[in-house]
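Quick start: read one record
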Amino acid sequence: MSSNGEPTSFESQDSIPIIDYSLLTSSNANDRSKAVQDIGRACEDWGCFMLVNHGVPETLIQEMMDFSNQFFNTTAEEKLEFEAHGVLDPIRCSNRINLAHQNKSMLWREYLRLIVHPDFNCPHKPPGFREVAFDYVKRTRAIAMELVKGVSESLGFEASYMNEELNLDAGFQLLAVNHYPSLSDVDISRGLVEHTDHGLLTLLYENGVPGLDVLVNGRWICMGGVPNAFFIINADHLEIFSNGKYKSTFHRAVVRDERKRMIFVNTNGPSLDTIVGPSSRLIDGEKRLPRYRPMKFIEYLECQIKHVTAGKHPFEEVRIHI
């Protein structure tokens, strides 16, 4: 910790776990078992890991980057059609970046946020964006669901247990495209204040411009440096369902480069009407008490908006102090 009580920061991720996705999907039982064990250790000890050999073509990712750039380069008037209003708007866009404001708690980004499951939504412009985004979402969702199977097994459950308990076939999935200005555009180092995500696991992919920090054991670690890797981060409902074994991970975006930064964020959660609490298999009388009270997922989303706006964390509503 620094002298002012803030977590210290350093620019290295040398020991952050790297998981080989091809081992998780391997037909070799030993390879898969090792991948499951590695995922469990990463979720418990780090709350995040890098995922390589995931099979999403780099050409598809580049197409997503190109179309996203085209979207953000349209005029403010054109983007008004998708202006953000409510948390369940199928398509939400915000370009209210106040370049004159020096308040470091401001969210210095432009974003496009899409509900992509159980129903797929995407802007109809630029032409071709919808088709490419659909392919990207289909592939990344398959990765997320396979990772959840691995997480389920790492907790001692069957591979299908979390999917069935949380109704993930009808799960609520978002794709957010975050566009950050360069240092030459804003005289400020903050990109997005520290926060955690709703859902189980968050998949992130950036355009090669570093700026993602994760908080591990009181230290901010800058992620990056592994080509064509997804960053996987524990989210709130993984902590709740695992009864605190796999902690949700605080992360932030920091503008520290002269290049503009683009990042894709996939959040993956249960269905909106699923009530999420600690797994009944992890509760054992007085020995293992529940640490979180159950809450319907849609109510948690609404609670998250309310608390983040007030500078608080939604866990204040669900955490049980033992």
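Confidence is low (pLDDT under 50) at residues 1-13, 97-105.
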